[in-house]
Design a protein that fits this description.
With about 60 residues, the chain is mostly helical. The protein is built from 3 helices and no strands.
Length: about 60
């Protein structure tokens, strides 16, 4: 399967967008947990980054504080 340059650009832009959204959610989760004094959750979110990303999305959507 051969991809042309436009397809490569499109996939690269989507990859960068998803990476930025995940990094922002992870950062939100870490900052919020550290600010609230929940160090155990901050450590878990730092070590197991998918947990931090999901927690950050939950904070954004108002599922938990």
């Amino acid at each position: 399967m051969k991809m042309d340059l436009d397809q490569i650009k499109k996939y690269l832009l989507w990859y960068i967008l998803c990476l930025c959204v995940a990094a922002s959610a992870w950062t939100t989760a870490l900052v919020t947990t550290i600010k609230d004094g929940r160090t155990a959750l901050a450590v878990i979110g730092f070590v197991a980054w998918p947990v931090g990303v999901i927690h950050g999305w939950g904070i954004w959507l108002g599922f938990w504080p």
